[in-house]
UniProtKB/TrEMBL annotation:
Keywords: DNA-binding, Nucleus, Transcription, Transcription regulation. It comes from Paraglomus occultum. The keyword Nucleus applies. Residues 120-132 have a biased composition (Acidic residues). This is Transcription initiation factor IIF subunit beta. It is found in: Nucleus. The keyword Nucleus applies.
Amino acid sequence: MDENENRASGSSGAAITKFGNPVLNQQVSIEQKTTRMPKNELIDLLFNAFELYAYWSLIGLKTYVKQPESYLEEVLSEIATLDKEGTYGNFYHLKPEYSRQTATHESIATVGSTSGNSGVDDDTALENNDDD
């Protein structure tokens, strides 16, 4: 019994010394705080990130752009979708209207459209006719 009492009193004494001291308030230094960059710059940086990889975790994007998590989530909600299940669960990917494939198809469609113009610039047509 004496041995158990010594263990109990020894462990409680350790707990008091460990937890008995008040924790000092740790202040975050100014260098450690992240400041918000302008929204348009953050969006450009996020588009660059999604050009590197199609799917990003929030932690990965936070590390990449070095912005506050709440601000990052706010901007991501405008340009990206969070997959909640499946292979890419808890990963963000660009919304279809911002993906490069959609933009390429739209640009091809507008170049090939014939809205009163044959798709050839007037200056180009004149330059081609100067061969006379």
